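Consider this today:
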Amino acid sequence: MLSMSDRIRAARTTAGLSQTQLALETGVKRSAVAQWERKEGTTPSVTHLAQIAVVTRVRFEWLATGRGCAKPDGDGLHGTVQPNADYVQNDLEGNILSLVRRLPPRKRRMAHAIIEMLGV
């Protein structure tokens, strides 16, 4: 199961937000978001955790406990997401990931199918 810090990072990056953007949305400094995303960092208050869930459009229960599906519509993150799934190895991967994250869910599934057909 992902740690809370991993779930916060996954929710933020899947929502296409930077640490600075999430900080602005939740009324904290960027350094607070960075701490929340560190393995040995601080844990957000329940109020901030609820704000993160609303801003990133994930279920509060998943964000707080790791149980269930992250997204209300059942699409996107699940409790089995790999902690390092958000880290890219080079600029090309980063650009591709950024483009895919901007796609609506239906087109994401189509892009996934295309990539699988390429023999990956």
